[in-house]
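Q: I have 598 residues here and want to know how they pack in 3D. Can you give me a structure?
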Amino acid sequence: MRTWLVVVLMILVGTGCNGAHSQIEEVRQAANNTERSGWVLPYDKAARKPAAIVFVHGIFGTTRGTWTAADGKTFFNLIRQYPEVGDKVDIYAFGYTSEVFKGGSFTIQEAAKKFSLFMEEEGVWEYDTVVLVGHSMGGLVIMTALSVQPEWTERVPLVVMYGTPQEGSQLASIGKQILKNPALKQMVPRNANEFINSLDYAWTNLPKNKRPELVCAYEKTTVYGFEVVSQSSGTRYCTGVSHGMEQRNHITITKPTHVDDYPVRLLGNKLKEVLGTDRKARIETLDFTPEGDRLVFKMRDPIKLRNTARLFNPGALRARVVVGKPSSDKLLITPVDDPMFVDGGDTEELVLELLVRGEWVDKVEFELDTPGRPDRIVQVQIPSPPALEQRAAFIQTEILSDLDKALALPDIKARVLAIPEEYQPLFVVELAERTLKRLDVGATQASRWVYVAEAMTNQSWSTYADRALLKAKQESPDLVRSSAVRSLSEAVAAKAGTESVFVLTDGPGPRPSPIKYDLQDSWPTRDVRVADTANLTRNMQSIPGLKRAGLTLEGNVLLNAGQQENAERIYRSVLDLRVTPEAEVKWRVARGQLEKEG
C-alpha cells in the first residue's frame, strides 16, 4: 500500500524513480515550490522582444522544475535556441502554490487570479503578442483566466497545452482520496466535475473569433502503468491537429533535452507562424483623402448632410482610436466613445453629421489619434450656404406639412385634445421625429432627436426643442459629451429662458451668450406664404397646449411676409401667454421695424 501511494504521488508530482529509500523525500522536495514567478534571464525590459512566452506548471509542479530535464536542460533555453524564434521572444515562468503534504494550495480559480495579477504587474500585456504554454493543470489555469478576462485574447494568438486534462483525469479521482489538495477535486472526470462543466460553458461561449488557437500535445505512454490524461481529455478544445508525443509520458512531456525534441519543435514551429504574422494595431482611413499633412473629408448629401467614414483595422490587435473635439460645434461625430476601439480585421464607422444653426463655416477640423503614427488633422469640408438653406427649408416644410395633415384629421385632433395640456407639445415633437425618420435624416435615433431640436429652434419653438433634447439624452446619455449637442442645448436654454437640459458632469461648459435676434433664425419660413399655414396655425391655436407655438408660427410667417403690424400684434399675444427671451426679441424686432417705417 505504501509503495502504491508513493507511485501515485510521484505521478501527480512529476518526479522520477531513484530508489524506494529516497522516494518520499523526493516527493517532498518536488512539491515544495519555493521558485518565484519571474522573467527567465536574459531579459531586458528596455529592449523588449516582439513576443512574450509564459509557461504555467501543473498541479504539484514547480515554476521552473516542471520545465527542466534531469540533465539540467530547460524548455526555456531550448526555445531560445530554436531557429527564427529564440531572438524574438522573452520568457516568463509563472508559479502558484500547490502543496502535497500541507495546506495553502490554490484552486484553479485562485491560481488564475494570481496569474491575472502577475501578468498585469509584470507588464506581460504590454507585448503585442503573448503565447501561453501550460502543463497539466496549468492549461486549465490559462483557460480560466482567459474566460474571465476575454479582452486579453486579442494579444494571445496561441495557447499550447501539454497533457492538460480538459475532461478531467481518472488519476485525480484516486489522488483526491489520498490528498486534500482542492485542485485535485477540480480535475476528476467530467461527469462528476462541476468545475470542468462550468469551464466548458465559459470557454465555448467566447466568440469564436476571440478564441486563441489552442494546440494540444498528449502523452503516448503511461507512468508506472497509469494513464494520467487520456487522448480525448487532452485534446477536447484543441483547434487543428493535435500532437501525440511519442515516447513521452505525463512527466517527460515538458522535459525535452534537445532542440529537435518533439515538444520543442511543436512550440517552436507554432511560434514561427505567429511571429511571421503582422499583429500590429493600426487604422486605415478608407474615406479620408490625404492632402499634404492632413486628411480631407467632403460632406456630400445637401439634404441629409450625414456621411460615414470607415476606419479599418487590418492587424490582429484591437486598435485604440481617439477623436478630438471639433473646431466648430456645428459638427456632430458619433460614436462619442472616447476612446473607441476597432477589433483586428474589423471596420467601424465614424458618422459625421452637421447642424446648420449659427454662422456658416466652410470647414471643421478635428484631430484623429490612431496607433502607429502621429496624430493627424482631419478637415471636413462643408457645403455652401445655399445647400444648407435648402436642407433646413426642406426639413421645416416637411415637418409643417405633416403636422398640418395630422391636425386636419378630426380624430387625431380629438386625441391630442384628450391629452393633458402639459403633454400636448410632445405630440408635435414626436411627429417631427417621425418626419425626420421618413426623410432618413439622422444616423441614429438619438441624433434624429438632436435634429428635431434644431428644427424646433429654427421655428422659434424652443420649449419644444427642450423636450427633443431630453429625448436625445434618454436615447444616448453620452451625447452630453458632444460639443455640438452641448452648444445647441445652451442656445435652446437661452432662448427659452430655462436651464440647460443637460447636467454637465465635466465642468460648467460654455455659457450661452446674450441672445441676439437675427433674421436668419426665421429663414426656414421665409418662403412660406401666410395662406399656406392658415389652417395649421388655426388648428394649433385651438389646442391649449399648442396655442403659443401656433401663434409664434403665425408671427414668423407674417414678419417674413413684411406684415410687421400684424406680426407685432401676434407676438404680443405670445408674450401674454408666457414671457421668454426669444418671444421678447421677436416682438421688439416687429415693433422696431414698424417704428422705423413710421
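Q: Anything worth noting?
A: Residues 1-6, 15-31, 173-178, 503-523 have pLDDT under 50 and may be disordered. The first strand starts at residue 38 and ends at 39.
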